[in-house]
Design brief:
The complex is a heterodimer of chains A (395) and B (628). Chain A is α+β, with helices and mostly antiparallel strands and 395 residues long. Chain A has 15 helices and six strands. Chain B has a five-stranded mixed beta barrel. Chain B has a four-stranded antiparallel beta sheet with strand order 2-3-1-12. Chain B has a three-stranded antiparallel beta sheet with strand order 7-8-11. Chain B is elongated. Classes of the chains: A alpha+beta (395), B alpha+beta (628). Chain B: It holds the Pfam family SecD_SecF_C.
């Protein structure tokens, strides 16, 4: 179908993409990616920032000269204050108040750092208080990380309890495992690309948690709605209903992801483009990568996982069997149903289906019908008439 | 009308919040000053340091009371610098964060424990690391030239046993007795040179943790080196036995932390352990006054020190003064009991009771020296010229500043907890301002992108998004100013990032609502009935999704350290306020909007757009449903 066709079908929530049916593919891809990520952890490891190795950094105003000259001067200043100290990396970072050179050096103790700063200031001919400096012990990064891991554990526990209460345990399990996949894949991207990991990255990493689940909650909400009372009729297997939910909420997920990514993109743009380094860039990058991964995992992993789990539930298992049996029966023409066999994957909303089918059981479909009547009664010429072919025509 | 009432509540919240912003306690100055949020150091420039409490022996965090006591002492010390608005707060269960806005200064000393110990110098050696070619000092010691004692080599260990009660006697034997060596005790460690001393030396008085770490170090240096080192009774004479140099070599590669767990004798006797390593030992490595210790003076002289008989707690007051020769010294007043201890110590040193002090350690006049040990280093080690019954002085290479700093540390007392500087950040005012502008710019760009997108996608409904983002922005700003004043919340760069991220959360809740609305309209409902229906359903999703974000923010805020806290707080605050705006602004506005004619026009709302294609599809769809 044409691209515009897909777009408008997406817009209308009727894209009819078969996500659940290909779940083996997604699991396979996810498994492979996770394998790659884990291998990468083991073989490549991570590029750790200054906060993990320990070290110093100095920010010198760029007005002192070229980067190379500045680096040489700093090197000389360091050599004169501490044996073996040197500049590890030097880079120019922007700022709205003027550019800076950021020099990362080997670890200095406080006296050495002060002496080096004074020496640099003398060599550059500027005031010592024009030079910013950071000093980080090697333990700091690991302290931040260990607290972050603690946070991760607490958060996952809380959120599991919450999801169990709000949905059910299978949904919670699916959501949390897709969350972990999300984290592993994000970390894998960091390891593979070699992005620098700083405490800010770890913070951002934890924030992804919230977002990853945000998407999952949006989809699961729809799944729950679509499958409420699903066993009461024989039209859809659980997987089909879930697939429908994915299609219906695809645009929503896409939109929430895009909208969440936009400000983060701004953050990344300013952080990386303008400032060059630091908190904003680190946060922006990890959030950007993580949210993008979260969008995919929520669609391609969380719901298929849920279906996988659900299909083991006896009630659902029996229901699926019934649906399939009915379908084979229909195909063989053994029974003539009220309705012809519907290809469930691109079926309409179950709400309508339910209502159309039976109308007997007090199902979700029942209420809108009543409501709709009200709406029709009070319908206005503009809002109702021409534009609302709904109620009357459909029934 | 209900929507009107909800809007009124929102208006009321606004009025109250901004009344608080302008007129609550702490608000002062002109219009602009009252609207100033508290900005963090990374935005205005200044110094920040994070100190982590480390108990070098066990890894347990200090008790809350200890941490608070330490915080107060540090606050006193910082205030002694005369910096306005300095802030010292505890963070988590083991961090103390010191912030000096607008000041660029080195804070490292503030966190030093300032454990003062007076210890007799028992032996001295060269610790500069040039010891591979041994200094002349070691020679007399092993030769046993200290004639009064029966055997020279036995003597040092003899003095060890009564004082530290280290080898065999019970630890409670405190060692007040001074020099008189108990021969029986001395016999144990010395004869069985190689294995036994190391075992017995580390047997009782050391905590279990140290014992394990010692084992680890033993493995690291190898059994041969360890045996050689434990066999030493004096600084190894490498000229006499060159093979020893090779054996002991691994000790030179030990980290300061590993050096710290070695027995004092070993630290002293192995020449490969230099002052560079010793000075960098973790804080409180030699805090235990009942143990002998090794410490360096000026980074070159390595001393084996007796147990501490006078402590920092015996000092009543300390002041920096100029002495007769116009050099800065720190004068000490001892407390009553402390004075007595001090007199005893000087008597012991003056008489060199029990010949405890080795030849190498005696001063010019043949009297013992007493080292003033501050934390891991020897500040000075004057020879005791007489029995001192009055106040005392610490001399050393002080200037006005360092003398005052030391006096301040002694006066406010030692910290009950030892700290290590984890992170120190100096941000110049220029860099801070640049951060602030960059953060605001990023926020602006983020907001702009979201608004452009929402206008593009939802047409005129984008204006509802725009208005609510502006509203939440104003609410967040008001809350920031108010909270900054009331609970001291400071906005940092990470906090700004949190706000920016929350923009996404806020916009997300719109998307959920509007998409729901679209669903309802597609199902053929009139806007009037679709809005409340979509609202009930979207509300559930929005609340659960936001609850998760808030949950993550709260967890982050509680357990995290450093900049994360600011980020989490900002994210949580903005998300909560987003919920307020969702309930009190967006929903009523949409309810009102749904009554207008323009609502469904594709050009206006973006919602009607689904209808034209839907209508053309309607035929097939309807028929399908009808068949069903």
């Amino acid at each position: 179908m044409a691209k515009t066709g897909l777009a408008s079908r997406l817009y209308a929530g009727e894209a009819g993409l078969d996500v659940i049916g290909r779940r083996k593919l997604w699991f396979g891809v996810a498994g492979a990616l996770i394998l790659v990520a884990v291998l990468s952890f083991a073989l490549r490891g991570f590029t750790l920032g200054i906060e993990f190795a320990g070290g110093n950094s100095f920010q010198v105003p760029a007005s002192v000269g070229t980067l190379d000259d500045a680096e040489k001067t700093v090197d000389t200043a360091l050599a004169s204050t501490a044996a073996g100290a040197e500049v590890v990396t030097a880079q120019k970072v922007g700022g709205t108040g003027g550019d800076f050179y950021e020099m990362r050096t080997t670890q200095l103790n406080a006296e050495q750092a002060n002496a080096a700063k004074a020496e640099m200031a003398r060599a550059f001919g500027i005031q010592p208080d024009q030079i910013s400096g950071n000093q980080v012990s090697e333990a700091w990064g690991s302290q931040v990380t260990s607290r972050a891991l603690l946070g991760l554990v607490i958060f996952v526990l809380l959120v599991t309890v919450y999801l169990v209460l709000r949905f059910e345990w299978r949904m919670a399990a699916a959501a949390v495992s897709s969350l972990f996949m999300n984290l592993i894949l994000t970390a894998g991207i960091y390891s593979l690309v070699g992005f620098e990991v700083t405490p800010s990255t770890i913070i951002g990493f934890l924030t992804i948690l919230g977002f990853a689940l945000y998407d999952v909650v949006v989809v699961f909400d729809k799944v729950q709605e679509n499958t409420r009372g699903i066993t009461a009729n024989n039209n859809q297997t659980y997987g089909e209903a879930a697939n429908l939910a994915i299609n219906q909420s695809l645009m929503r997920s896409l939109n929430t992801s895009v909208v969440a990514l936009l400000p983060v993109g701004g953050l990344l743009f300013i952080g990386a483009g303008l400032l060059g380094a630091g908190t904003l860039k680190d946060l922006g990058l990890v959030l950007f990568v993580g949210m993008a991964v979260a969008f995919l995992t929520s669609i391609l992993l969380a719901t298929p996982l849920l279906v996988l789990l659900k299909n083991y539930e006896p009630r659902i298992q029996a229901h699926n069997k019934r649906v399939l049996a009915r379908r084979t029966a229909l195909a063989r023409g053994e029974i003539t149903p009220k309705g012809a066999a519907r290809p469930a994957a691109d079926a309409d909303e179950p709400v309508d289906a339910d209502a159309a089918l039976a109308g007997a059981a007090p199902k979700v479909g029942a209420r809108p019908a009543g409501k709709r009547a009200t709406g029709a009664r009070g319908g206005r010429p503009a809002g109702g008439g021409g534009n609302r072919p709904g109620g009357a025509k459909r029934r | 009308m209900r929507p009107g009432r909800q809007l009124a509540v929102l208006g009321l919240i606004f009025v109250v919040l901004y009344l608080l912003v302008f007129f609550s306690g702490g608000a002062s100055g002109g219009f602009k000053d009252r609207l100033e949020p508290r900005l963090g150091l990374d935005l205005v420039g200044g110094t920040r340091m994070t100190l982590e409490a480390t108990n070098s022996l066990d890894g347990k965090p200090p008790t809350a009371e200890n941490l608070e006591e330490a915080r107060q002492i540090i606050e006193n010390r910082v205030n002694a610098y005369g910096v306005a608005e300095a802030e010292v707060v505890t963070e988590g269960n083991r961090n103390i964060v010191i912030s000096l806005p607008g000041e660029n200064r080195d804070l490292t000393d503030v966190g030093s424990a300032a454990e003062l110990r007076f210890r007799k110098v028992l032996k001295a050696a060269d610790g500069s690391g040039a010891a591979a070619a041994p200094a002349p000092t070691p020679t007399p010691a092993p030769s046993g030239s200290a004639s009064p004692k029966p055997s020279g080599s036995a003597k040092p260990s003899g003095s060890a046993s009564p004082s530290g009660a280290k080898a065999t006697a019970s630890p409670s034997a405190g060692g007040q007795g001074g020099g008189a060596p108990a021969p029986s005790a001395s016999a144990t460690p010395s004869p069985s040179a190689s294995a036994a001393p190391s075992a017995s030396a580390s047997a009782e008085p050391v905590p279990a943790g140290v014992e394990e770490q010692r084992k680890a170090v033993e493995q690291k240096v190898g059994a041969a080196a360890w045996q050689a080192a434990s066999g030493l009774q004096a600084p190894a004479d490498l000229t006499a036995d060159p093979s020893l140099a090779d054996k002991l070599k691994p000790f030179g590669a030990l980290s300061p932390r590993e050096v710290a767990v070695l027995p004092a004798e070993m630290q002293f006797n192995v020449p490969m352990i230099t002052c560079a390593q010793l000075d960098q030992r973790p804080p409180a490595s030699i805090k235990d006054e009942k143990q002998k210790a090794v410490a360096c003076e000026d980074g070159v002289q390595k001393y084996l020190l007796d147990v501490a008989k006078v402590l920092g707690t015996d000092v009543g007051d300390a002041n920096a003064v100029l002495d007769q020769t116009s050099s800065w010294v720190v004068s000490l007043d001892f407390k009553g009991a402390g004075q007595e201890k001090w007199t005893n110590l000087t008597r012991e040193a003056f008489n060199n009771e029990g010949q405890a002090c080795d030849q190498t350690a005696l001063g010019q006049d043949g009297k013992c020296r007493v080292a003033v040990v501050l934390d891991n280093k020897v500040v000075s080690s004057p020879e005791i010229q007489g029995v001192l019954t009055g106040d005392s002085q610490i001399t050393g290479s002080f200037d006005n500043k360092t003398a005052n700093a030391l006096a301040g540390q002694l006066r406010y007392g030692a910290l009950p907890v030892t700290f290590e500087a984890q992170e120190q950040q100096n941000v110049t005012a220029t860099l801070g301002a640049s951060h602030l502008r960059a953060g605001l710019l990023a926020a602006g760009i983020g907001m702009l992108l979201v608004i452009i997108y929402s206008f593009f996608y939802y047409r005129l409904l984008g204006s509802v998004i725009f208005l609510s983002l502006v509203l939440s922005g104003l609410l967040v700003f008001g809350a920031l100013v108010f909270l900054g004043r009331q609970i001291g919340f400071t906005l940092t760069l990470a906090g700004i990032a949190g706000m920016i991220v929350s923009l996404g959360v806020a916009a997300d809740s719109f998307v959920i609502y509007f998409e729901r609305l679209k669903d309802e309209i597609r199902e053929g409902r009139s806007p009037r009935s679709a809005v409340p229906r979509a609202w009930t359903r979207a509300r559930r999703t929005i609340i659960s999704a936001n609850a998760i974000t808030i949950m993550s923010a709260v967890v982050l805020y509680i357990v995290s350290v450093g900049a994360v806290k600011g980020f989490a707080f900002a994210l949580g605050l903005a998300t909560v306020l987003d919920l307020v705006v969702v309930f009190l602004f967006r929903h009523p506005i949409m309810t009102m909007f749904a009554r207008t004619r323009a609502f469904l026009s594709p050009r206006v709302s973006g919602l009607g757009r689904i209808l034209p294609p839907a209508r053309s599809e309607q035929a097939t769809r309807t028929s399908r449903v009808k068949e069903a």
